[in-house]
Specification:
The chain is α+β, with helices and mostly antiparallel strands. Helix content is 17%, strand content 34%. The protein has a single domain, classed as Jelly Rolls, CATH 2.60.120.10. The strands form three sheets. A six-stranded antiparallel beta sheet has the order 1-2-3-10-5-8, with no helix packed on it. It has a three-stranded antiparallel beta sheet with strand order 7-6-9, with no helix packed on it. A two-stranded antiparallel sheet has the order 4-11.
Length: 167
Amino acid sequence: MAQSGPDFSVTEFLGALSDTVRPSTARPIVVRAGELETLPADQVHNPTTLSIAGRLPTATFEIFRQTIPPGESSDMQRHHHETVHYVIAGTGHSEVEDETGSWSTGDFVYTPPWTWHRHYNDSTEEPVEFLTIENSRLLGLLGVGRRQSAGLVTVEQARARFEEETT
């Protein structure tokens, strides 16, 4: 059965689905905090630290631990994937397009696809720690993943910068 392309058949695909789901052999089932891989600073484009749980055998989503230093923020960015941040520790606020929402330890922050957004640490003394979950791997597998960073700017500045590039 073809997985895609001109020989792909929805009927064959649906017929191949089974009512029985076998347990996965994917391993490891546990990745320790010390095994997270910190992304190089030149790939992050902002003052935050992103560490990925890359050894987890996830096929459709990625998990990061994100740290925003006291008084700092992430960059203004948008991407095709959805993201949920669980606030492990700290207080701050997020700009998502024209909305601003405050959050603190235990809260969840949702970023819809292709929206300009930026997350701020409101503390001048303590870092913010996020558990960040995004479906970027799924979109990458489908060939539709895209990300843009405008740097440490406002929503209006990001819109203006990227509208100029597309006109």
